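User: Here's a structure from my thesis project, written as structure tokens. My advisor, Dr. K., wants to see whether a designed sequence matches the one we expressed. Can you design one independently, without my sequence as a hint?
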């Protein structure tokens, strides 16, 4: 039976029977196992190409241009046999139908006609281990161990493409910025086309563009503002869609103090005129501290002309500290400005989040205040977890760079909390992961956008994060958002931070090289480590102490020794950590997505080819069921508390979605007592402010579960989920 002929199979029916309660009302979890067994028997085994030996298989794949020969040639064949034998001996099996289905549908290498599989899970694991280890046999074995036990999950672009001859990039998420001139706008549109073509979700900062009505060469009122540029970008992403294989994806960021802010938000409104409506482009706001202050005090806020600000300050608008300079900007008669009530804008933001889930919120001052690297963070990415410094480019009339700035590519991977907590050596596991991600940044050469290439070459940035937190909490009888769950999250991410620093320091020492401008960082002067050398960040409660029993937890003295080593030898990576939504690879890793709570104990996923697939929460059982509360039934302050505790140790950000019900359950939020239970803009304002005060750097989507069982704002970030 061909893969394209799936009419006479039982696994879809068996999977759907999960959603039909048994006579005693229990969830029929055994049906998922039956569906998995049927899928392997009816789909995988008959449609997988068989080879007489490993050598025959690899010879066939290289000869027919399925995989590259060059990376295999870095190893003696006897070692490749040894690595494969180790993987075979681990007897890997998928734990759910969704995990197997997702892997074979999306990740497994197939014949050119798409009718047969050429890979099993251990084959894809082997390709990743051999490719990312770059000829280092010891590292290849370590990587194979981390991957097959699913302690480490590379990003989708890396896991999917590693070793393949005809492949996309290993990185597929990018951040670029536009400055206030036509050459830069043209270059930005070209960059968006090029990056979308190679598989990227692209974040674009538009805050530097002059507002509608600003002058062009002293002709009053000639500028059209950011709206037409947004339309050009949306059309670019629509056009550059990998031959229809996927929709191009982009997000545009704008400062809340930009004069076009209301028009910017209006493009996503339900009643927006089609001339201005933006259907597929995502929206993000950069929000300085000053906005929260003005809204809290119910004051007017001034929106400043980026054109005038740049003339006065000599740098693009994004690079001016609005909070620090606000009073000076207001008093400066050379800067045009508009006035509106801060709370009116706050309400507009809430209204749009109710309608569409947008905009993302990036607390720009929080990001820069916590940034240990010299320079300015001005924007984020399509999933709001990447926050790195950038410098603007200057482009001449020949579309060439008079000054080549730095932009960003996202190089991501995730730890699986459940499995990493079982590791015999937490530190060695993290070291292995960091080295795998380091190979990706070293080999990434995005030449089509020189500022991306330069930013990567100088920073060597990576982003190691986590998935499966809710599963771990449930398995250990902790409710999501409880004090012990918050404490565990803090210790876990403290350990990730410590060991990524150790690994980056080791690599810098081995290579005699640190990231660009390291000497001007808080790492170099040692101040970054002050908070860690001042107190014990280890577990405090007996419950959490028990969870980390047998795991090395660094003391203040250990941090002091690390501080000295970093000050002496440096760090190879400018950035090391970020937590992405990882909605795709979490399935094949049988993990709950990111560090977020689950949406449902039995999740319904719509597949374009076959309809609905049901996915039980990982490790769901009578034992864990009480601890698997839906995100829609959890006070979002608990989620914010979890993310805020992790954020203390993450140098970049965490992609945090807020989950709301259109009718809020009684007693969930005390400010709703005696009020209309319908979700209001006030509810979202309170939660945004709570997140800001807890030190959250970014809010991704607001997803609303409506009374008619629909979900608003449930868009999927298809390009940088990992």
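Assistant: Designed independently from the structure alone:
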């Amino acid at each position: 039976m061909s893969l394209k002929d799936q009419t006479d199979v039982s696994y879809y029916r068996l999977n759907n029977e999960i959603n039909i309660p048994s006579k005693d009302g229990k969830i029929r979890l055994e049906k998922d196992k039956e569906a998995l067994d049927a899928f392997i028997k009816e789909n995988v085994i008959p449609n997988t190409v068989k080879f007489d030996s490993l050598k025959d298989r690899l010879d066939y794949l290289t000869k027919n241009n399925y995989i590259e020969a060059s990376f295999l040639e870095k190893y003696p064949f006897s070692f490749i046999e040894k690595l494969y034998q180790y993987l075979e001996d681990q007897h890997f099996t998928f734990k759910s139908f969704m995990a197997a289905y997702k892997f074979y549908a999306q990740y497994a290498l197939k014949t050119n006609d798409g009718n047969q599989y050429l890979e099993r899970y251990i084959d894809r694991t082997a390709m990743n281990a051999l490719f990312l280890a770059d000829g280092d046999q010891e590292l290849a074995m370590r990587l194979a161990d981390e991957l097959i036990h699913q302690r480490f999950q590379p990003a989708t672009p890396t896991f999917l493409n590693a070793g393949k001859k005809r492949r996309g990039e290993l990185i597929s998420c990018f951040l670029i910025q536009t400055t206030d001139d036509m050459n830069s706008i043209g270059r930005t549109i070209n960059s968006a086309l090029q990056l979308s073509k190679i598989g990227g979700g692209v974040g674009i900062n538009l805050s530097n563009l002059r507002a509608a009505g600003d002058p062009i060469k002293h002709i009053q009122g000639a500028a059209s503002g950011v709206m037409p540029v947004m339309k050009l970008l949306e059309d670019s992403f629509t056009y550059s869609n990998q031959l229809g294989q996927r929709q191009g994806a982009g997000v545009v960021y704008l400062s809340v103090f930009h004069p076009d802010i209301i028009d910017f938000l209006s493009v996503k409104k339900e009643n927006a005129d089609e001339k201005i409506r933006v259907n597929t482009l995502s929206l993000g706001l950069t929000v300085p501290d000053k906005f929260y202050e003005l809204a809290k005090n119910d004051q007017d806020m001034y929106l400043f002309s980026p054109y005038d600000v740049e003339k006065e300050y000599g740098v693009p608008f994004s690079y001016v500290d609005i909070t620090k300079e606000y009073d000076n900007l207001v008093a400066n008669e050379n800067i045009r400005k508009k006035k509106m009530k801060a709370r009116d804008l706050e309400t507009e933001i809430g209204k749009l989040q109710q309608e569409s889930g947008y905009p993302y919120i990036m607390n720009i001052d929080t990001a820069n205040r916590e940034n240990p690297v010299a320079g300015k963070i001005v924007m984020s990415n399509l999933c709001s977890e990447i926050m790195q410094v950038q410098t603007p480019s200057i482009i001449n009339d020949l579309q060439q760079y008079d000054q080549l700035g730095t932009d960003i590519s996202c190089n991501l991977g995730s730890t699986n909390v459940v499995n990493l907590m079982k590791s015999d050596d937490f530190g060695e596991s993290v070291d292995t992961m960091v080295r795998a991600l380091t190979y990706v940044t070293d080999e990434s050469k995005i030449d089509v956008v020189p500022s991306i290439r330069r930013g990567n070459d100088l920073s060597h940035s990576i982003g190691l994060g986590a998935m499966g937190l809710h599963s771990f909490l449930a398995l250990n009888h902790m409710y999501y958002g409880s004090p012990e769950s918050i404490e565990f999250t803090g210790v876990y991410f403290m350990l990730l931070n410590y060991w990524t620093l150790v690994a980056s320091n080791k690599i810098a020492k081995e290579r005699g090289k640190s990231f660009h401008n390291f000497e001007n960082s808080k790492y170099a002067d040692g101040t970054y480590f002050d908070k860690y050398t001042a107190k014990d960040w280890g577990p405090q409660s007996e419950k959490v102490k028990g969870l980390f029993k047998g795991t090395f937890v660094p003391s203040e003295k250990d941090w002091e020794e690390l501080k000295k080593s970093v000050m002496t030898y440096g760090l190879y990576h400018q950035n090391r950590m970020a937590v992405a939504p990882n909605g795709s690879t979490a399935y094949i890793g049988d993990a709950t997505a990111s560090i977020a709570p689950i949406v449902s104990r039995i999740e319904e996923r719509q597949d374009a080819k076959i309809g609905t697939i049901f996915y039980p929460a990982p490790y769901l059982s009578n034992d864990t069921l009480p601890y698997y509360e839906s995100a829609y039934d959890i006070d979002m302050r608990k989620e914010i508390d979890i993310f805020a505790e992790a954020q203390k140790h993450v140098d970049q950000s965490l992609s945090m979605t807020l989950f709301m019900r259109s009718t809020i359950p009684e007693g969930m939020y005390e400010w709703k007592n005696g009020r209309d239970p319908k979700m209001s803009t006030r509810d979202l304002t309170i939660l945004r402010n709570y997140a800001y005060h807890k030190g959250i750097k970014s809010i991704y989507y607001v997803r609303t579960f409506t009374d008619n069982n629909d979900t608003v704002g449930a868009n999927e970030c298809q390009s940088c989920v990992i």
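When you compare it with your expressed construct, this may help: The longest helix spans residues 483-511.
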